[in-house]
Design brief:
mainly alpha; 9 helices
């Protein structure tokens, strides 16, 4: 690579712990062939699962609320997702457990992605993980705000899809020409290859700016 792309990919590998040192290849994560197969996720999977859910949630919202009420609720859901994305990435995915089981779990959740950032078969969240998070988030929202949660959750699920599609695109494609997409491309790859302690937002830099992790 040359020029701007070379700067993005300039890795401080000698300064990083082993799980943050990038290498090429597609590693085997599980001895069990079924679990191993399930760890490889097609990038269209989030769309297949969550687009129908979003449509259903918006349908339920339209039956109860006017459009002028739905729009701000939907966008509040988008903001909620960006905050979830930031905190999950910074405090869960980058938490370093000390036990052997904890380190193994951490490797499965996120360590493998930092070790093998070019593994294009593991660039979106496995359904078993995303569905569990989705159920917890939906339960909390519905108990807090009742039927307003339909529109909010539609926004949150949309934010999640944008996150997964952005993440896949960043690792799969070369630098885009669009300025916004190119910024997100550089932002996330710099997290991988030069500043793993910064730049935790993937679909948005909003919370990196607010919490000073740019």
């Amino acid at each position: 690579m040359q020029g701007e792309e070379a700067v993005v990919f300039k890795s401080r590998s000698t300064e990083l712990p082993d799980w943050l040192r990038p290498r090429k290849g597609i590693p085997r994560m599980f001895e069990n062939p079924i679990l191993e197969k399930l760890s490889h996720v097609h990038p269209a999977t989030p769309l297949v699962i969550y687009v129908p859910i979003i449509i259903f949630m918006l349908y339920k919202s339209v039956k109860t609320f006017e459009l002028k009420e739905i729009i701000p609720l939907f966008f509040s859901g988008l903001i909620i997702w960006t905050l979830m994305e930031y905190f999950l990435h910074r405090f869960v995915f980058h938490f370093q457990p000390k036990s052997q089981f904890g380190r193994r779990l951490h490797f499965i959740m996120h360590g493998v992605h930092h070790m093998y950032p070019w593994d294009t078969t593991r660039l979106v969240m496995p359904p078993a993980v995303s569905i569990l998070i989705a159920i917890v988030v939906w339960t909390i929202m519905y108990n807090l705000v009742g039927e307003k949660s339909f529109a909010i959750y539609a926004g949150t699920a949309t934010g999640y899809i944008l996150y997964d599609m952005t993440h896949f695109s960043v690792h799969y494609f070369k630098a885009p020409k669009n300025k916004i997409l190119k910024f997100l491309w550089k932002h996330h790859l710099q997290h991988h290859f030069s500043r793993p302690d910064k730049k935790f937002g993937v679909s948005s830099p909003l919370w990196d700016i607010i919490f000073r992790t740019m």
